[in-house]
Amino acid sequence: MKVVTVGAGVAAAEFVETLRAEGFRGEIVMISAEGFPPYSPCVMPFFLAGDPLETAYWKGADFYDRLGVTPRLGDPVVEVEDGRVRTASGAVEPFDRLLYAPGAADRYPEPAWLEVHGVFGFKTLTDLTAIDRHIREGRVRRAVVFGGGFIGTDAALALRHRGLEVTVVHRNNRLLSRMTDEDGGKFATRLLARRTGIDVRLETVVTAVNARDGALASVDLSDGTRIETPLLVVATGVAPNSGPLIGGDRGVEVDEALRFDPRIYAAGDVALTPHAVDGVPGLYALFPNAVAQARTAARHLVRGEGAYPGSVNANVLRKHVDFPVVSAGRFEGEPVTWQDDRRFRRVYLKDGRINGYLLVGDMAAAGYLHRLYLERAAAEREVPGLISDTTGTSYYRRAVGLV
């Protein structure tokens, strides 16, 4: 049996490693639009902040050789049909089984901006190595990040850690607007700006980029201001790379074994999976979900059994900043809140159970809250005491049954 993966990211690498661990000894070909060994998007910002590139290779730079894989790199797949994939170069690779896991791509408000030297996305290691080279060769000391969601904030923090002066431009009224509610997000935004010195421009967008001799010189904002900068990172959203398989970017529907059809599995940023708690299908494009999906698909391929238990929309931001922002679930139901000048804690209760939570400033309660959330345990009586505890002990006492 010949197995092909479209993509060589987190899901594809975990899939291949699990196949080998399960005893699969057949041919494996991994096709990637990029030219790197498998890397972790979670680690990429550390590289941009100054760590060695090799730190991004979460399964080792020798992955392809060690796992007995034939890599086809730097040649994106453009079509999947009739048991074969076709790449941009015209190469055709037949398969008996396929894992479709090409990840997601940046959405650009103005794709033509990328033609200007100094304008970059922030989704791939190709993007980050180009930014790194631009900073080094141009001795760049100033950057603007357009987009203040998780990826944009991650980018801003990495650039700030590297020593650049950074401005974040975001259309919403708070940073991290998809992983926070309004109160918690505004609290996190104020804390982040105060502790990092990042200049945050809210309810504002970049309207134009201005070039001089083909290189970025400045950007114009919707509030009428102009910022002189040689570097613009655009992080305004992503879309799944599902087009070659289904003809659009709406994501790939899969069954409980992660199968799109009897021969094709899908995992990672492109897979539409049910939520583990409420069952609502969606694109839950997070590292732990991709790993679990890949393992499920690989074991099903080898054993013919197994089911994916569902995804969780949990996020943690804590790289290059001295406080964490942690959230999970949905911000719907009855909010229970505690805060001081350094911390914000809120839990949403629905029918006496945790429907979602948000922690800013510390994560002492995160593990216990997450367990209650996943187990759908009755928590109405516990939550007020949990989130108001400032000693840092009640979480552990409850976890081991001492309370």
Structural description of this entry:
There is one protein chain. This protein has 3 domains: 2-104 and 238-303, 3-Layer(bba) Sandwich (FAD/NAD(P)-binding domain), CATH 3.50.50; 108-234, FAD/NAD(P)-binding domain (3-Layer(bba) Sandwich), CATH 3.50.50; 325-399, Enolase-like, domain 1. It contains 11 helices and 27 strands. The protein has helices spanning 10-21, 44-48, 63-66, 125-138, 150-162, 182-196, 243-246, 287-303, 366-375, 383-388, 394-399; strands spanning 2-6, 27-31, 70-72, 77-81, 84-87, 92-94, 97-100, 104-106, 119-120, 142-146, 165-170, 199-202, 206-212, 215-221, 226-228, 232-234, 238-240, 252-253, 259-261, 264-266, 271-274, 281-282, 315-317, 325-329, 334-339, 344-350, 353-360. The chain has a 6-stranded mixed β-sheet with strand order 3-2-1-7-20-19, with helices on one face. A hairpin with a 4-residue loop joins strand 14 (215-221) and strand 15. The longest helix has 17 residues, at 287-303. The radius of gyration is 22 Å and the shape is globular. The protein starts with a strand and ends with a helix. The model has no long low-confidence stretch (mean pLDDT 95).
**Widest sheet, order of strands:** 3-2-1-7-20-19
Tell me the radius of gyration.
Answer: 22 Å
Considering the protein shown, what is the CATH homologous superfamily of the largest domain? FAD/NAD(P)-binding domain
Helix content: 25-40%
Q: How many separate domains?
A: 3
Query: How much β-strand is present in the residues?
Result: 25-35%
Overall CATH architecture of the largest domain: 3-Layer(bba) Sandwich
Strand segment count: 27
CATH class of the largest domain: Alpha Beta
Tell me about the biggest sheet?
Answer: 6 strands, mixed
Low-confidence segments, given as residue ranges, are: none
Coarse morphology: globular
The N- and C-terminal alpha carbons lie at a distance of: 55 Å
Number of helices: 11
